[in-house]
Design goal:
The complex is a heterodimer. Chain A is an alpha/beta fold. In chain A, about 50% of the residues lie in helices and about 10% in strands. Chain A folds into two domains: about 290 residues, Rossmann fold, CATH 3.40.50.10420; about 70 residues, no CATH class. The termini of chain A are far apart. Chain B is about 25% helix and about 25% strand. Chain B is globular, with a radius of gyration of 21 Å. The N and C termini of chain B lie far apart (about 60 Å). The chains are: A alpha/beta, B alpha/beta. Chains A and B meet through helix 3, helix 4, helix 5, helix 9 and helix 11 of A and helix 1, helix 4, strand 9 and strand 10 of B.
């Protein structure tokens, strides 16, 4: 998938001018932030639960090799097949081989961000397979040929009128702008597709090592249909998604929905283990689990390791003043918001996403809301440090800082330059009493004025006061 | 080197010598889970998640309560039921029950339930030869018969009971909390997405 994260500033400026988007983003504080706060308060010991969640995820990462091997052994024992993919291209090739091996032609998908990371749909369609997204939001985006702008509310940037246009162009049914009617329309259109599909593709919220199970949390029911009706099920998961025990899964099941949507539990929490039994009338005959690395094992030994705890709830997006203002598309790849500002440079390379760690106010709300206590501001700070250390900042800025650094080490030169600058500032602001424009720093003064100086440096003032 | 080995080698190198942090001493439950009467809590939270509730004194009287619900709601009396429930007196209650896998045209699906979970007002259904998952999923109305003594306090207790009665996990554990829903368009909640629009729980016994 194309990465445009190095154009964050320009994209953010467009988002700010998009009144429709701004209206959509204005729903976030009540629908997500307040809902999570109510759910946490109702729960009671939510801070202890977050600490437990962080410990569970850290424990899993510390023994990731052991848990992955245990998961594989248990899953295979129950008749599932486990595949390992070092990168997105390999994951796509594996899924394509599975589809061909089972004579698959029609595929239904439930929502999965890791398949967005792999651009799996493009790969399958290029091979002539019909792929249908069935989550309502993802279905709308497939019609619109857009990517998700939020990891759990993919179509948050669109309003109902746009959905009406898309549906009426495609479905040829009477137009409606009623949200319930639009949902019903999608249900009726998609329902036969679940029965017609040969293969279902899902992500995985968690993998459970001790039972070889895949856990899914959904609300619409399409996740259950996709994993119940087609004869083949493929689940794709990042290698970091494994936990050891069902007890640990129970703790995370309390954290994830409350952090994501403010629900005490999702409508459907499904735990899938192995293939259809001899006496069963539904469930997949073949169950393939694809474990995707795509840079994660490299992260495990790096200073960004805590991001691997992430359970993809979206709370950091919802609580971020930058995300709330510019939305998800400005981030330019699959994962937006604070977690995306870490995941994107971590997975695609800092040089292709160097503007994302700058997209933060360091207010710390992401860390406060994170269900597994990822120190997101600290990780962003580390990425900023690396941006500078690896000379990824703009050439003009690096030159300016180098010059300043040279001057700062030479006090006489510094005094001379400071005296010159103080006089320039005085002249620039003399007429209005405010400096409204600076040479070489017009970007900074475009949105800021500051009081004109007195035309002398602090050293000059002090020298005069001491009678020197 | 296979991709499996390549990945595991990198993971091993990154985890080698790393200290494993201790497991959390306590996993907190939602406030009231361990003190509130499980039946009272189950009813309260199941209703909050959009399910409706009723009671039947025994399995034999459950079909009568199902018929009463369908009549009140103005729904058809033709239903698919779990083969596990085929022996109940459906015909006598006026319900045309068929024990088979549901088709997309079936409006009513009747299932049992392995247990209820009081913490969140959740039903747990297990897949099996006589308990197909599609029955609680494909029809617009899902009616679940839940034995009253099978209400567990929390997820941990439910997992323990599954293991005690089945050993290994059945293929699918479906934890169901109310009718399906979506809030994808303008973050406005609509009940009835791809799954059932109505979930009706009958506590039996």
């Amino acid at each position: 998938m194309e990465v445009t994260s190095d154009k964050f500033r320009a994209a953010a400026a467009r988002s700010l001018a998009d009144t429709q988007l701004q209206r959509a983003l204005a729903r976030i504080p009540e629908r997500f932030v307040a809902a999570r706060a109510r759910a946490a308060a109702e729960f009671g010991e939510f801070e202890q639960l977050r600490a437990a969640g962080a410990a569970i995820r850290e424990r899993a990462l510390a023994r990731l090799d052991v848990l992955l091997e245990r998961f594989e052994a248990e899953a295979v024992c129950r008749g599932a097949s486990v595949h390992w993919a070092v990168d997105a291209a390999e994951a796509n090739r594996i899924v394509l081989d599975i589809a061909r091996g089972h004579g698959v032609r029609r595929i239904v998908k439930s929502k999965s961000m890791v398949t967005e990371e792999c651009a799996l749909n493009d790969a399958l369609e290029a091979a002539g397979l019909a792929v249908l997204e069935t989550d309502l939001g993802e279905y709308i985006l497939q019609l619109a040929r857009e990517r998700p702008s939020h990891i759990i509310a993919p179509v948050i940037h669109k309003n109902r009128e746009e959905v009406t246009e898309l549906f009426s162009a495609r479905h040829r049914r009477p137009r409606s702008t009623d949200i319930a009617a639009l949902c019903q329309e999608a249900r009726e259109i998609l329902r036969p597709q679940f029965f017609a599909a040969d293969m279902g593709i899902s992500g995985a919220n968690f993998l459970v090592a001790e039972t070889g199970s895949v856990a899914l949390f959904t609300n619409e029911g399409n996740g259950r249909l996709v994993t119940t009706l087609p004869r083949v099920h493929v689940a794709i998961a990042g290698i970091e998604k494994v936990v050891e025990t069902l007890g640990e899964l129970a703790a995370l099941a309390r954290l994830l929905p409350r952090s994501a949507t403010g629900q005490a539990i999702s409508n459907y929490f499904t735990l899938l283990t192995g293939v259809r039994g001899a006496t069963e009338s539904d469930g997949p005959e073949a169950f393939h689990i694809v474990l995707l690395d795509n840079g994660r094992s490299r992260l495990l030994g790096s200073e960004l390791r805590p991001i691997l705890r992430c359970i993809r709830c979206g709370a950091c997006l919802n609580h971020c003043p930058v995300y709330q203002t510019v939305g998800g598309h400005a981030y330019g790849w699959v994962y937006p918001g604070p977690m995306g500002a870490v995941w994107t440079p971590a997975l695609v390379g800092l040089e292709r996403a160097r503007e994302l760690p700058e997209a933060a106010t360091f207010c710390g709300q992401c860390q406060v809301a994170c269900p597994v206590m990822i120190p997101l501001p600290d990780l962003l700070r580390r990425l900023r440090t690396r941006t500078t250390a690896e000379h990824l900042r703009p050439a003009r800025e690096r030159l300016a800082l180098n010059l300043w650094g040279y001057a700062a080490r030479h006090p006489r030169l510094y005094a001379l330059l400071a005296a010159f600058a103080a006089r320039v500032l005085y002249r620039l602001g003399r007429r209005r009493g405010w400096v409204r424009w600076l040479p070489l720093a017009a970007g900074w003064t475009a949105t800021r004025d500051f009081p004109a100086g007195e035309g002398r440096t602090a050293r000059e003032v002090l020298r005069r006061e001491r009678g020197g | 080197m296979s991709m499996r080995e390549a990945i595991l080698t990198r993971v091993r190198a990154a985890t080698a010598g790393k200290q494993v942090p201790p497991a959390p001493e306590v996993i907190p439950r939602a406030a009231g889970t361990l003190t509130e009467d499980p039946l009272v809590r189950f009813r309260r939270l199941a209703e909050m998640s959009g399910s409706t509730l009723d009671e039947a004194a025994s399995p034999a009287t459950a079909p009568g309560r199902v018929a009463a619900y369908l009549k009140d709601a103005g729904l058809t009396c033709a239903a698919v039921v779990w083969p596990a429930l085929a022996a109940l007196p459906w015909t006598a209650a006026g319900i045309a029950a068929e024990a088979r896998a549901p088709q997309t045209t079936d409006a009513i699906g009747i299932t049992g339930a392995f247990c209820g979970i009081a913490e969140t007002g959740t039903l747990l259904l297990l897949s099996g030869g006589d308990s197909p998952g599609a029955t609680s999923l494909v029809p617009e109305t899902h009616i679940a018969l839940l034995p009253r003594e099978r209400i567990m306090r929390d997820l941990e207790a439910a997992f323990a009971r599954v293991r005690a009665e089945h050993g290994s996990l059945p293929r699918a554990l479906a934890f169901i909390s109310g009718p399906s829903r979506t809030a994808d368009i303008e973050q406005t909640i609509v009940i009835g997405a791809h799954g059932p629009k109505r979930v009706h729980i009958i506590l039996v016994g």
